[in-house]
Amino acid sequence: MPEIHAARRGRLQAALADRDADAALITSLVNVRYLTGLASSNAALLVPATGDAVLATDSRYALAADRDCPDLECLTCREVESTLAGLASKRGLRRLAFEAHEMTVERYDALTSVGEIEPRPLGRVVEDLRIVKDDTEIGLLARACEITSSAFDEVVPQIAAGMTERELAVLIDQTMIDAGAEKPAFDTIVASGPNGAIPHHTPSGRPLALGDMITIDCGARHEGYHADMTRTVVLGPPAEWQRDLYALVAAAQRAGIAAAEPGAAVAEVDAAARDVIAEAGHGEHFSHGLGHGVGLEIHEAPMLAHGRPGRLADRVPITVEPGIYVPGRGGIRIEDTLVVRSAAPAAAREMLTTTTTATVRELLVL
């Protein structure tokens, strides 16, 4: 898809006009992939304010670069950043904007020791460009979510007392891979019983027991794009407090999803769900933001949380994931990935996670 990546680089070049820079040096591997299509562990991209970009990678990825980036000049070298900085200097591109948020001091010293360079921070320009997804990206996200949802539906009937959290997490991961995932999008979370009070609990050897609520947070990665979904189920007949808390979290999620429209302030979307939980007396038990963007990374802008700036726009994929975490008792989180759309109110969002429990109106009893 050279034309797609060329268009993305064109948007970056337009942004450089406001940065007093002759060129940008892109060193974030995720951003390099976004702008070129090359996935690697060692690459950098020089994007001049005008003219053609130059990609540098080492010999391990040279053939992949030829295949995936046929429209780019490619240099094969090990020290990709300093090589491109030297090239920029030779071409008179002295005012070089760099990604300071991911650059170490050691790398910065090496970068500025080459040629005559006037470094200046680029900021998170590429990350900002990545917020709004094109149709190709949304299609890849939808496929990642489809794999995640089908794997969850396949695994749920196999959950039984005596299975450990770790065994269940491994089963979910393998099922996603068997369904077509490159790999899990992140470390799968399985938190049972009192462990559910830890939002990002690491699956342990604890056996699942009757009466446990079980929080399962999982996602598949497909062609670099990440799905994110959380479901909470209960093993055996639930207690009344479990049903009540689940209904509360489900109501909060519905409120958050309803508020997620183009133009909505991200802080207000967070508040729409958070207020439901706070008014029920559990405000202190909802300790994280309501959600986040997803794409080539599992956590991307925008962040839906109190005090966060910004507004939602058309074609922005986000998660909506309220939770309640009660120490000593357990926790509940319900999370879906959706795309905010500029459309009539009834179609202002597109749900990507599609499990049989996607309506999440009632607690699933196993």
Could you provide a short overview of the structure?
This protein is of the alpha+beta class and 366 residues long.
Task: Describe this entry's structure for a reader.
This protein is α+β, with helices and mostly antiparallel strands and 366 residues long. It folds into two domains: 2-128, Creatinase/prolidase N-terminal domain (Creatine Amidinohydrolase, Chain A, domain 1, 3-Layer(aba) Sandwich); 132-365, Creatine Amidinohydrolase, CATH 3.90.230.10. 34% of the residues lie in helices and 22% in strands. It is built from ten helices and 20 strands. The strands form six sheets. The chain has a six-stranded mixed β-sheet with strand order 4-3-2-1-5-6, sandwiched between helices. Strand 16 and strand 17 (330-333) form a beta hairpin. Helix 9 (240-259) packs antiparallel against helix 10. The longest helix is centred in the middle third of the chain and has 21 residues, at 135-155.
- Helical residue percent? 25-40%
According to CATH, the homologous superfamily of the largest domain is Creatinase/methionine aminopeptidase superfamily
Number of strands: 20
The largest sheet has its strands arranged as: 4-3-2-1-5-6
Could you name the CATH topology of the largest domain? Answer: Creatine Amidinohydrolase
Strand content: 15-25%
What's the architecture of the largest domain in CATH terms?
Alpha-Beta Complex
- Into how many domains do the coordinates divide? 2
Structural class: alpha+beta
User: Helices and strands, in N-to-C order?
Assistant: HEHEEHEHEHEHHHEEEEEEHHEEEEEEEE
